[in-house]
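Hey, can you fold this one?
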Amino acid sequence: MDRDLNYSMPVAVQVEVVPDARNVRIDELETRVRERTRQFEEKNAAVEEAPRELRQAQDQLIVQEKMATLGALVAGIVHEHNSRLVAIGSSADLARRSLDRLRRLAAGPR
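Sure. Predicted structure:
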């Protein structure tokens, strides 16, 4: 072909048809995209689950704190109650010993 696009001599053209390797490459890429999408969905589910687990842990901590406070309150009440019982017991023991001594004194010498 010359520069004016006129054929000056016969030309033989050989065309070879080869399989399109791009299809295989496209399939590979699609497989990788599906795998990455699955991985992102799993991670996204884990990220969405984290706040729920955090709320559960906070609720458990609140319950534990309430129970600890209640335990301290009950321990204080029991301590106060026992202190009074010990004082009453000591007074009763003193009164009993005093009465025993008075009875011995009232009975006179033997």
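The chain has a mean pLDDT of 88. Let me know if you want another pass with a different chain boundary.
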